[in-house]
Amino acid sequence: MIELQSLSKWYGEVIGLNNVTATIGDGMTGLVGPNGAGKSTLMGLATGQLLPSMGRIRVFGQRSWNNPAVLSTIGYCPEGDPFWMNLSGRQFVSFLAKCSGMSFRARRKSVEDVIELTGMTAHAGRAIKGYSKGMRQRIKVAQALVHGPKLLILDEPFTGADPVGRHELGHLFRSLADQGVNILISSHVLHEVEALTNEILMIDHGRIVAHGDLHSVRRALHDRPHAIRVRLDEPRRLAAPLAAVEFVTGLKISGSDSLLIETPVPEQVFEQLPDLILREGLVVREISAADESLEALFGYLTQRSA
Amino acid sequence: MTAFACANLTKRYGSIQALQGVTLSVEPGVVGLLGPNGAGKSTLISVLLGQTLATSGEASVLGLDTRRQQRAIRRRVGFVPENDCLIPGLSGTGYVYYTGRLAGMSHGDSMQRTHEVLDYVALDEARYRPTEGYSTGMKQRLKLAQALVHDPDLLFLDEPTNGMDPQGRQTMLSLIADLGGAGISVLVSSHLLPDVQRVCERVVIMGGGEVLSSGRIDEMNKPHATLYRVDYSGDRIAMKRELQQRSVTVLDEANGRLDVELPQEGTQAKVMEAARQAGGRLSGLHPKRSSLEETFMAALQRQRGS
Amino acid sequence: MTTAATTNPNRYRRWDGELNRGNRAWLVIVVTGIRLALKERKTRTLVMTVSGVALGNCIILYVLSLLELVTGTEQGRAILEFVRAFLRVDISGVTRIEEYREILWRVLFLLVIKVELFWVLLTVSKVGPGLIAHDLRHRALPIYFAKPVTPLTYVLGKWIVVAAFVAMVVLVPNLFSMIVGVLITGGLHTWGQTLGLGWDLLVSGLLICVTSGAIVLALSSLTSDHRYVTVGWLAVCLLPIFAQGILDESLPAGSTLGWLGCISLRDNVMTVTDWLFGMRGLWEASTLPTEAFAESMLKPVRPICAITVLSGWVVCAMLVTYWRVVTFSRSAANV
To answer: Which residues 39-68 of A have a C-beta within 8 angstroms of B?
Structure first.
């Protein structure tokens, strides 16, 4: 879908992206990273708004800079508020549809469709300057969808939206992805990214620190022992036999009902755990991998040496 | 002693009914204030701060009446607004010092406290630089410092983590949790439910100017006693058979996960036995709990239904 | 033996100090406002250069005191002759200058105030526009009104910031040259004679402070862009003057429109100052001949009208400011 080849972008001396090579596959990909990591730069390059300083970027096999053929297949939802504030939501979407070269008839149908899809029907007649942040996000998404793109690039589409808006937008993106639209979405709220997709592109300081399926990324971090959390009433009774297990490198009892097991090979521990629990006759309320979340990975991979 | 309380509070702006009969009594502690846009959260905070007069009804903050004891209230509360709120030309130190003086602190006290709270929010050398160049995260922490400088007993935070990157949010959330531990009541108004879930003990859910639901988060999201999600890899059919033999009902299954219902409370051991018999690997046992998002959506749905 | 160890982790620490019960927030706003404005190089330059005017004023006062010393002598007459030729005023009847000391000083200070009004125009256009506009732009009002600050305190504080700068370019140099003048012209003996002038300088200076402060503050509260305020302030000050000038040119002599003068800030301020200085009365009481020069100094004075207009300006301006601040402090939370 998007291929990056030794791609670099600098703004004067300031780094945007530095020597990035990757292939972003079909489906939905979550783009995460701290502020200033280069997320928006990557999106700008993919949508042909920025010219690479070095290297190449290909979208559907073609360069995106100054290439209307490719750009007409991309829908872009920018981070900021690039509105004509006095236009109504409908006029705004319709105008951008016109810019995409849609005919009058196609436009009329499509504009109403995307407004409906983003739940803006009731507000589409009002001027954008009176919109709340959540409505602005919705109308930006509508605008990105209006020309039926094959690739959606969404820069922080949830920011400022209320929980209802987040829920509905998330639902919309998932159903679009199911319909075969490719999506590249960035967000600071890692829970939400995780709920949308397992495919992650994590960047920091303009370089890729992790790319791929969440679980395989976690497995690739060999030097980090995995953590398994077990909730039960008498954690010490389970800790004692676990200490004898070969692969367990650390045991931590926190509170009166929680045991944290550290191990480089969680599979081995998972295999032995039911036996131990049954042998001791314990009642376990929860077993979970404590650090397989995107949040934990993000912490490991973007820690700055302070 | 309550942090704040309202009785039948209403507020009308022209034809808009921003608050309609809010009755609420909130214990000290870290409290989340949730609601979609237009739910009346900002109006409620504004009334509690004494910046807006309620149309009818009573409200008290820390036992002080919001109509007659505005200044006494404002000496004991801190407010972190959602917007930038900076004063151009001032450095971080100058800004916090200024707000300390505005609160009525003497020069020496204000200077001491300024550096103390800036240390606390971890604004290091940046505190001597003009605030215009601050990042979003630094601005948020500076605004928190500003609200803390006169050591309030109650803190109002309006969207404290909005637009921040994951690390910034992490820092802000741990500060909020620590403040709660230090005996300061905090009211966090936020659209980011995971953040609220992490730091708040209680939540108040508002919608359409009314309180829809309020209570302790851990009571709202009590783990279910018999509904579990099981991560299992291995022979799926054998596992299901073993589970059924032990009268554990399989409700649903999706890639590597089984949703099961135990015959009664405390019989998790049956799942382990089944896994051992089936010869596969059990890598997770998660009690079903309704997330804050589900609680929130359910509360809104109930309101729409009625 | 055990020693007590202290650890100091960076946890939140409570503060047990006392907050000031009185409402001194206005003072804090004033001090910070002045400090911030003085950070601007141009503002500092303006305040500095006005001392040049004060210096010129002092030099003229010194020359006058020299004239007083030589009055009655041959040399004095020669100087007076020169002055007469220079000003084209018939002052052949004048012999002892100290008799006309007060009127000369008043004429002098009136001229100096006119010059200083130019500095007022520039200084206020540097200092005033951002005062409230910046707070509106950055939505900083909730910061003030979450602290024990009332809208009145806020407006008062900001007003005094402008007033302080106007005082720095009018009041301070005038009073300074006044004192210098008294000291070099016969010391404390002169004090009694010129005390009235001192008061008049103080009152006229305060008048300028109050009116310019109120008007620029009202403009500043109307928009969140300080550049509009600067333009607005210059328009309020200069447009009536320009318009009057054009009308004076185009209309036949004698049919000048008085109403433009009525709304012009500068004209009204000068009218009230003229009246305060009591120029006409003094002039008529003196034996000085009324010549063209004097006529220009003695436009018909209608102080009641001017005072009404000025206080109208100030009251309207303050109401606008207060209304804007109150509505913004309430609506800021609802945006």
So the answer is: none
- CA nearest A269: which of A228, A303, A305, A301? A228
Amino acid making up residue C112: V
Interchain CB contact of A245 with B (< 8 Å): no
In the prediction, which pLDDT does C334 show?
A: 42
Domain B227-287 has CATH 3.40.630: no
CB B34 within 8 A of CB B193: yes
Phi and psi at residue B225, to the nearest 5°: -75, -30
B193 — contact with chain A (CB < 8 Å)? yes
Cβ–Cβ contact B84 with C under 8 A:
yes
In a domain, A297, yes or no: no
Number of residues that this document lists for chain A = 306
Query: In this complex, is the C-beta atom of A288 within 8 Å of any C-beta atom belonging to chain B?
Result: yes
How many Å apart are CA C303 and CA C203, to the nearest integer? 14
Better pLDDT: C30 or A36 = C30
Complex ipTM > 0.90: no
Between B141 and C275, the higher pLDDT residue: B141
Find, among C329, C38, C29, C145, the residue nearest to B101 by Cα: C29
DSSP assignment of C153-203 equals HHHHHHHHHHHHHHHHHTHHHHHHHHHHHHHHTTTHHHHHHHHHHHHHHHH
Contact B96, B118 (CB under 8 A): yes
Helices (H) and strands (E) in chain C, counts: 15, 0
Pairwise CA distance, residues A141 & A124, whole Å: 13
pLDDT tens-digit map of B81-91: 988 888 988 99
Of A163-172, B3-12, C67-76, give the lowest mean pLDDT range: C67-76
Contact B285 A277 (CB under 8 A): no
Q: What is the CATH number of the domain that holds A127?
A: 3.40.50.300
Domain that holds residue A235: 225-290
Residues in contact with A108: Cβ distance below 8 Å, sequence separation at least 6, in sequence order: none
Task: Using alpha carbons, select from B246, B158, C193, B167 the residue that is nearest to residue A35.
Answer: B167
| pLDDT averaged over every residue in chain C | 80
Residue listed under structure tokens 């929130």: B296
**Domain B4-220: CATH architecture, name and number where available:** 3-Layer(aba) Sandwich (3.40)
Among partner residues C15, C32, C36, which is closest to B113 by beta-carbon distance? C15
Three-class secondary structure assignment of C230-298: HHHHHHHHHHHHHHHHHHHHHCCCCCCCHHHHHHCHHHHHHHHHHHHHCHHHHHHHCCCCCCHHHHHHC
Q: Residue B105 is nearest to which of C17, C39, C144, comparing CB atoms?
A: C17
Q: How many CB pairs under 8 A join A and B?
A: 106
Residue in the block written with tokens 């003048």: C181
Q: What are phi and psi of C292, to 5 degrees?
A: -60, -40
Alpha-carbon distances, residue B284 vs A276, B256, B289, C24, C69 (angstroms): 15, 10, 15, 62, 107
Residue B167, SS3 per DSSP: helix
Of how many residues is chain C composed?
Answer: 335
- The pLDDT of C96-119, averaged and rounded, is 80
Cβ neighbours of residue B295 closer than 8 Å, sequence gap 6 or more: B205, B213, B220, B221
Nearest to B86 among C19, C21, C138 (CB): C138
Is residue B305 very low, low, confident or very high in pLDDT (cuts 50, 70, 90)?
confident
Q: What is the pLDDT of residues A167-225, one digit of tens each?
A: 899 999 999 999 999 999 999 988 889 889 989 999 988 889 899 988 888 888 877 88
Looking at the 3D structure of chain A, how many domains does it have? 2
